[in-house]
Amino acid sequence: METESMDCESYGTHHFSSTTKTHAVVTNIVGPAATSVYELLECPVCTFSMYPPLHQCQNGHTFCSTCKVRVHNRCPTCRQELGDIRCLALEKVAESLELPCKYFNLGCPEIFPYYSKLKHESVCNFRPYGCPYTLAPSVLGMGPVYMAFLRFMGDEEEARRYSYSLEVGGSGRKLTWEGTPRSIRDSHRKVRDSNDGLIIERNMALFFSGGDRKELKLRVTGKIWKELHSADSGVCMPNMSS
């Protein structure tokens, strides 16, 4: 960026001022032009968007106020010694920018002035959220998991007459699975590949094991019951004694 194209003011031993005043109508910058200007507002050190006060070296290279402290008074681009030159022109240009929310690719249709865009993005309804399953390294990962399920000594039709639950607990927490038993005729691989059972990711399993979370000591309990159908109401009543 050439210094001739910027109207800057120095806060130091040197002062620069313009002797000619011009009047112009400021219009909002949108579209590809806004994108090009937006790139100028990216700090070359941290690559984040810059907000006032914006600083520049004597050769016109800009950077954010946070990184000005980090570069030890040397321009990160040309290595010239820094002064206290504030780039007022670029700050004014930023005021006229209108840009889409950075989560537009996730569905946000909003467009905001540059200086209010950051505030919106912190509360945008389309922003990513942290996974509530904090012990899982990745919901798409290939990490080890442990699975428990129940197979019924009979065919599939008989198995559907029953329900069962499995429970694992530890450290004051419980994880329960409830479902319909699989027939003994279904192979172990078939049941496993269908994910039809109590599935515990390794970190969660170590959590339930207690201690220093280095040794796996899971205790899984379960129960099975037969569903009794009431002829009058058509309601399924569990027979816990079965």
TrEMBL record:
Which protein, by its recorded name, is this?
A: RING-type E3 ubiquitin transferase
Alphabetically sorted, this entry's keywords are: Metal-binding, Transferase, Ubl conjugation pathway, Zinc, Zinc-finger
- Superkingdom to which the source organism belongs: Eukaryota
| E.C. no | 2.3.2.27
Name a GO molecular-function annotation.
zinc ion binding
The answer on whether this UniProt entry bears the keyword Calcium reads no
Source species of the chain: Brassica cretica (Mustard)
UniProt similarity note: Belongs to the SINA (Seven in absentia) family.
InterPro entries documented for this protein: 7-in-absentia-prot_TRAF-dom, E3_ubiquitin-ligase_SINA, Sina-like_RING, TRAF-like, Znf_RING, Znf_RING/FYVE/PHD, Znf_SIAH
Question: Among its keywords, does the record have Metal-binding?
Answer: yes
Q: Its GO biological process terms?
A: ubiquitin-dependent protein catabolic process
Catalytic activity reported = S-ubiquitinyl-[E2 ubiquitin-conjugating enzyme]-L-cysteine + [acceptor protein]-L-lysine = [E2 ubiquitin-conjugating enzyme]-L-cysteine + N(6)-ubiquitinyl-[acceptor protein]-L-lysine
Q: Which Pfam families match?
A: Sina_RING, Sina_TRAF, Sina_ZnF
Ranges of residues in domain RING-type: 43-79
Domain (SIAH-type) spans 96-194
GO terms under cellular component: cytoplasm
**In what pathway does it function?**
Protein modification; protein ubiquitination
What is the taxonomic lineage of the source species?
Answer: Eukaryota, Viridiplantae, Streptophyta, Embryophyta, Tracheophyta
